[in-house]
Design a protein that fits this description.
Rossmann fold; six-stranded mixed β-sheet; 36% helix; 7 helices; 228 residues; alpha/beta
């Protein structure tokens, strides 16, 4: 099943009145259950592409379909609901809420979805245990290391069992050992839960561990290699 379908996607930005192309007619299909990476230098378009797939940005032209839904056909409210229920995000800067504990940060997605407190707590505790943070659930983000904060971010991304997790440079602020451990956790979630993962990265370790590597340059896909 095709989880992500992009057809001739273009994205332009205006800078001092001048049109700057970020994506130039990108077409791409990601199947359900893939563990894939977008790679390329800074400015190649990988983060823009990830944001468009996640509904955080809109294409200038072309179509984007995620889990059978055409994103460009959705109203802002429908798009927000789609992100909440179908897509998990892992950001380079973690984006944890500083006044909430690790447990409360993970629960927050389920709170927005309207789940009862007991179920929210049970699911959040279970997923934090899966990522090895069972003894640190009550700590605030500033009381956790970078690697621990990123594991909280992964737990938050997967707690609602989304169809897709989009991770923007997930290992950028981590040392090699911690980054490898994080990739192991996400790959296990991919295998156990069938979640489709798509990363943007310039980390060779992430590229090596991904099962499909899509390289971008100047807003174009220049190679697409499957390792399966």
């Amino acid at each position: 099943m095709s989880m992500i379908v992009l057809e001739n996607v273009e994205k332009d930005y205006l800078h001092h009145g001048k049109k700057i192309p970020a994506l130039r007619g990108v077409s791409l299909i990601i199947q359900s259950g893939e563990f894939s990476a977008l790679a390329g230098p800074s400015g190649s378009g990988k983060t823009t592409l990830l944001n468009i797939i996640g509904g955080l940005d809109a294409p200038t032209a072309g179509s984007v379909t995620v889990d059978g839904t055409a994103l460009t056909a959705l109203s802002p409210r429908e798009l927000a609901d789609m992100r909440l229920r179908k897509i998990g995000f892992v950001f380079q800067a973690y984006n944890l809420i500083p006044v909430l504990s690790a447990l409360e940060n993970v629960e927050y997605v389920l709170l927005l979805q309207g789940l009862e407190k007991k179920e929210r707590r049970e699911r959040a505790e279970a997923v934090l245990t899966e990522v090895g943070l069972q003894d640190l659930m009550r700590r605030l983000p500033h009381e956790l290391s970078g690697g621990q904060q990123q594991r909280v971010a992964v737990a938050r991304a997967i707690v609602s069992a989304p169809a897709i997790v989009l991770a923007d440079e997930p290992t950028a602020n981590l040392d090699q050992k911690t980054g490898a451990m994080l990739m192991d956790i996400m790959h296990e979630m991919n295998l156990k839960k069938g979640i489709t993962f798509l990363f943007s990265t310039h980390d060779p370790m992430v590229m090596e561990r991904s099962e499909r590597l899509i390289r971008l340059s100047d807003g174009n896909i220049v190679s697409d290699e499957s390792k399966r």
